[in-house]
């Protein structure tokens, strides 16, 4: 039995797949919060390069991957597809479990797939400097790596609490040439005004987004980049599923269930969307998106227009949301702590194509430890949610032969602090109180 299926460089996809024209029911356009009308490209053009905006709005099914982008992706792509035979054995299941290993990238997650493409399009439009925000540091690291490849400066606003608690993330960004400041910083108006009122604030992703956007909007040479949620990020991540599909064909398998963990939705969608045409042709494929019980946007949120950040500085997006001022509790799957869900994934949930699965963090860490012991790779805490989902599917009925494919979004070698807290019994399960979600929902913008 083949353990892993590895493609040659020249078998790598040369086009991305855009699912938008194939989505039943289509997508609602992003709105300008001032006019409540679809936002104009001119307005978005202040912070995004035009070629990225074209991809964001595109209804072309296949879009060429530029040669320069392919050359950089080849540093680690095509990524291996692995059959988790040892995990199957440990579970005693007849199910076949495959995972696509995105942990082999320079920063250990799927995020550079989009960072490299975004840095490239900024480069060809003459952008000299890119700003972004980062929570735990994964996206900041990916963008620092990508910008270094194109000689672009990268400025990362990193949430204060992570900046203080996770100094090695900062070192990774610095190694790739990124400049990192703790957010709120005294380098922006919004940062200064928050520091004046709350000098000891731990910061938040919302504040960091607002600072990065202000920085980009006020400098001629600077644009902004976002690491998940938006259509162009899902487009860039589709390379995961396109490769996986070829590899599954080589293995002689078709997946019955496709699973991914969902923060903003990009790694899950990246694996899942290339299978949407097969689904629409009537093939029986289930798409399962797993999320933490403490931040359950597709299980407990509503489908509505909402802001992408607390400071209400982004366009309104039509998505499943817990409310832009929802503050998720500090569970350790940092990358899954986002109040909203990609409009593409949201549309698939609405059409009942995606089944949401809500999981508690302790069962996810247990799954991660079993995976590490059996398959030998320590997963990121976010990825543990995908693994748990795969285990749930594989053990529903141990005798049911089925083929499961999940996305291994990243390794956890820089997350051992979270594992320490798990081993010390310092982590607890947490269901977010219904009332908190309702309170936050009451503040949704009125459309
Ligand atoms: C950022 C991140 C996620 C969540 O982001 P998505 O946009 O939902 O994919 C999941 N896993 C890892 C390892 C991450 O770094």
Automatic annotation (TrEMBL):
Function, please? The beta subunit is responsible for the synthesis of L-tryptophan from indole and L-serine.
Give the protein's recorded name. Answer: Tryptophan synthase beta chain
User: What is the species listed in this Swiss-Prot or TrEMBL entry?
Assistant: Desulforhopalus singaporensis
Q: Which residues cross the membrane?
A: none
Keyword list, A-Z: Amino-acid biosynthesis, Aromatic amino acid biosynthesis, Lyase, Pyridoxal phosphate, Tryptophan biosynthesis
Spell out the GO cellular component terms annotated for this protein, sorted alphabetically and separated by semicolons.
Answer: cytoplasm
UniProt gene name:
trpB
Q: Which residues form the signal peptide?
A: none
Q: Pathway, per Swiss-Prot/TrEMBL?
A: Amino-acid biosynthesis; L-tryptophan biosynthesis; L-tryptophan from chorismate: step 5/5
Its quaternary structure? Answer: Tetramer of two alpha and two beta chains.
């Amino acid at each position: 039995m083949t353990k892993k299926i590895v493609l040659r460089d020249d078998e790598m996809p040369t086009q991305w797949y855009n699912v938008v024209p194939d989505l039943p029911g289509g997508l609602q356009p992003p709105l300008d919060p001032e006019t409540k009308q679809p936002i104009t490209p001119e307005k978005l053009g202040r912070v995004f390069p035009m070629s990225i905006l074209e991809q964001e709005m595109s209804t072309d099914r296949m879009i060429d991957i530029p040669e320069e982008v392919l050359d950089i992706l080849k540093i680690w792509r095509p990524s291996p597809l692995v059959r988790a035979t040892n995990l199957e054995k440990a579970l005693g299941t007849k199910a076949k479990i495959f995972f696509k290993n995105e942990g082999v990238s320079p920063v250990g997650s799927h995020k550079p797939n989009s960072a490299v493409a975004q840095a490239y399009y900024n480069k060809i439009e003459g952008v000299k400097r890119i700003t972004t925000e980062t929570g735990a540091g994964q996206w900041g690291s990916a963008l620092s790596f990508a910008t270094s490849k194109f000689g672009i400066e990268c400025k990362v606003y990193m949430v204060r609490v992570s900046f203080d608690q996770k100094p090695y993330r900062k070192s990774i960004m610095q190694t790739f040439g990124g400049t990192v400041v703790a957010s709120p910083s005294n380098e922006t108006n919004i940062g200064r005004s928050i520091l004046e009122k709350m000098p000891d604030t731990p910061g938040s992703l919302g504040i960091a987004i607002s600072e990065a956007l202000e920085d980009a909007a006020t400098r001629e040479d600077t644009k902004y980049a976002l690491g998940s949620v938006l259509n162009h990020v899902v487009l860039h991540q589709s390379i995961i599923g396109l490769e996986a599909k070829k590899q599954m064909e080589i293995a002689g398998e078709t997946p019955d269930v496709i699973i991914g963990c969902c923060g903003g939705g990009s790694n899950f969608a990246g694996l899942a969307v290339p299978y949407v045409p097969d689904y629409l042709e009537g093939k029986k494929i289930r798409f399962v998106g797993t999320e933490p019980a403490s931040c359950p946007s597709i299980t407990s949120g509503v489908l509505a227009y909402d802001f992408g950040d607390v400071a209400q500085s982004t366009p309104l997006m039509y998505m499943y949301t817990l409310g832009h001022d929802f503050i998720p509790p500090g569970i350790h799957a940092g990358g899954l702590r986002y109040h909203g869900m990609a409009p593409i994934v949201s549309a698939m949930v609405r059409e009942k194509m995606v089944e949401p699965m809500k999981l508690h963090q302790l069962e996810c860490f247990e799954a991660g430890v079993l995976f590490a012991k059996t398959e030998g790779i320590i997963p990121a805490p976010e990825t543990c949610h995908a693994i748990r989902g795969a285990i749930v599917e594989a053990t529903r009925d141990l005798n049911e032969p089925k083929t499961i494919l999940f996305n291994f979004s990243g390794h956890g070698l820089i997350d051992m602090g979270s594992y320490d807290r798990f081993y010390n019994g310092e982590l607890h399960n947490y269901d977010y109180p219904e009332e908190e979600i309702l309170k936050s929902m009451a503040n949704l913008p009125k459309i």
